[in-house]
Amino acid sequence: MEVIVLLGPDDVARVAADVVAGVVRRRPGAVLGLATGSSPVGVYAELARRVAAGELDLSGVSGFALDEYVGLPAGHPESYAAVLARDVTGPLGLDPARVHVPDGRAADLEAAAEDYEQAIAAAGGVDVQLLGIGANGHIGFNEPTSSFGSRTRLKTLAPRTRADNARFFASPDEVPMHCLTQGLGTILGARRLLLVAQGSAKAEAVAAAVEGPLTSMCPASALQLHPRATVVVDEAAAVRLTLLDHYRQVYAHKPAWQRP
Ligand code: GLP
C-alpha cells in the first residue's frame, strides 16, 4: 500500500482532501465512502473550505456511511446519521437525498444490512472510501476477529471502542452496545481506500495495519489485500513504522502523473 507520512494533522487533511477532490474531478457523480469519528474531521473541513471557495463542487456525489449505532433514538445528536448531516452533508454541499446511512433503528436489522449492501451495489460501488482507524485496529466498526469476507451486519462493540467513544455521550453507559457496519469485504470492494490517522494513540494500530501480519486481530490489516490503498498519517501516528525512511523516499519521488 501507499504510505504517506506528513508533518501534522493539517497536512494529512490537505493531502487526503486532494485525493477525494481528484476522484470527484474525474467523476463528478462519484460515490464517496464516508467515515465518522475524529480522524476525518480535518479532511471534511478542508473539503468544505474548497467548496466554499468555489474550487470544488460535491453536489453531484453520493455518500455511504461506514456504520451506525443500533438503538439510538431518532435524531440523537451522536447517531452517525445526525453527525454526517451536521458535519458533512451540509458543509460539503452534498445532496441529502444521496447520503446513505445504515438504518440502526430498523425492526429487522438483518434486512436493513442487506438493503444497505444492495444500495451500495445499485450506486455502482464506492469510488473512494475514507477510513479512520480505531486504537484496536478497527475500521468502520469491524472489531478484532472480524472476517475479511464480512458484509454489512450487526456487530457488538468492543469494550475499548465503547470506552473510546464515551467522550461523545453523557455517560459511558449511554454508548450503544451494537452497531451496523459495512464488513471488511464490503470495504475492500471500494475502488480506492484512503485511511487517515493522526496522533500517537494510533501509532501502534497504524504499524500493525501497514507492517504487521494480515490478521483479523487487526482488521485494518485487510488494507494489505487491496490493490489501491493509501494511508496518510502524521509524524506522531507514524512513529512505530519501521520503514519510515522508505515511505518518505517513495513519496518524495512520486511521479507527477501518479499524484491527485
Ligand atoms: C469509530 C468509528 C470508526 C472510526 C474509529 C476511530 O468508532 N466507527 O469509523 O474510524 O472509531 O475513531 P476516531 O477517528 O474518533 O479516533
From TrEMBL:
Broadest EC class assigned to this enzyme: hydrolase
MF-aspect GO terms: glucosamine-6-phosphate deaminase activity; identical protein binding
Domain Glucosamine/galactosamine-6-phosphate isomerase: 12-225
InterPro entries: Glc/Gal-6P_isomerase (IPR006148), Glucosamine6P_isomerase (IPR004547), Glucosamine6P_isomerase_CS (IPR018321), NagB/RpiA_transferase-like (IPR037171)
Top-level division of the source organism's lineage: Bacteria
Listed GO CC annotations: cytoplasm
Swiss-Prot/TrEMBL catalytic activity: alpha-D-glucosamine 6-phosphate + H2O = beta-D-fructose 6-phosphate + NH4(+)
Keyword field: Allosteric enzyme, Carbohydrate metabolism, Hydrolase
Pathways per UniProt: Amino-sugar metabolism; N-acetylneuraminate degradation; D-fructose 6-phosphate from N-acetylneuraminate: step 5/5
Keyword Repressor recorded: no
Site, Part of the allosteric site: residue positions: 146, 153, 155-156
Active site: 67 (proton acceptor), 136 (for ring-opening step), 138 (proton acceptor), 143 (for ring-opening step)
GO BP terms in the entry: carbohydrate metabolic process; glucosamine catabolic process; N-acetylglucosamine catabolic process; N-acetylneuraminate catabolic process
Entries under Gene3D superfamilies matching the protein: 3.40.50.1360
Activity regulation description: Allosterically activated by N-acetylglucosamine 6-phosphate (GlcNAc6P).
Pfam family of the protein (one): Glucosamine_iso
Hydrolase recorded as keyword: yes
EC annotation from Swiss-Prot or TrEMBL: 3.5.99.6
NCBIfam families in alphabetical order: nagB, PRK00443.1-4
Similarity remark: Belongs to the glucosamine/galactosamine-6-phosphate isomerase family. NagB subfamily.
Entries under HAMAP family matching the protein: GlcN6P_deamin
Annotated function: Catalyzes the reversible isomerization-deamination of glucosamine 6-phosphate (GlcN6P) to form fructose 6-phosphate (Fru6P) and ammonium ion.
Name of the protein described by the UniProt record: Glucosamine-6-phosphate deaminase
Organism of provenance: Geodermatophilus normandii
Lineage of the organism: Bacteria, Bacillati, Actinomycetota, Actinomycetes, Geodermatophilales
Gene symbol of the encoding locus: nagB
